Amino acid sequence: MGREIRTVSAIFMLISGGTALFLSLMGLYPFALLMVFFFILFFAGFVAGAGQQSAGWQKVTPKEPREKKKMLRPNMRYMRYCSACGFLGSQKPREDVPPCPVCGHRLLATDTPLKEFSAMTPDQRETIKKTWTYLG
């Protein structure tokens, strides 16, 4: 960042210095004085930027690994859930998701396998159903 500040300050110092010289030759001293003020301001930025050095190399911290998406296996059965009436069912992932047989609402196609859902405790099942309610 220091290099960029120095470069911009140097460019504006040249512009304001040249403009101050031109305005003083034209006899417009108040405007020339204003340009000298800008010259001093940019010179201060130039001096302040000179003390800062931009790092050529920066240490990169590794990102946290992302959660891998579950690959749906075509032969496994996955849970389907109706957020309107609470109906639970299972189905293969490539099959079209039918409407709820109880109330007719759209079923939510989850990525939770039937085997995994069956192995859960009743509390875990209720917790996951609550998340499905928000999704569906």
Furnish the topology, listing elements before pairings.
Layout: H1 2-25, H2 29-50, E1 78-81, E2 88-91, E3 108-113, H3 114-119, H4 122-135
Helix pairs in contact: 1-2
Radius of gyration: 34 Å
Strand content: 5-15%
Query: Helical content, roughly?
Result: 40-55%
Order of strands in the sheet with the most strands? 2-1-3
Which structural class do the helices and strands define? mainly alpha
**Rough outline:** rod-shaped
Oligomer: single chain
N→C terminal distance: 48 Å
- State the low-pLDDT regions, or none: none
How many DSSP-defined strands?
A: 3
Mean pLDDT: 78
Overview of this structure, please?
Strands 2-1-3 form a 3-stranded antiparallel beta sheet. The chain is mostly helical and 136 residues long. The two termini are 48 Å apart. The protein has helices spanning 2-25, 29-50, 114-119, 122-135, and strands at residues 78-81, 88-91, 108-113.
Concise structural overview:
By secondary structure, this protein is mainly alpha-helical.
Key phrases:
3 strands, 3-stranded antiparallel β-sheet, single chain, rod-shaped, 136 residues, mainly alpha, 4 helices
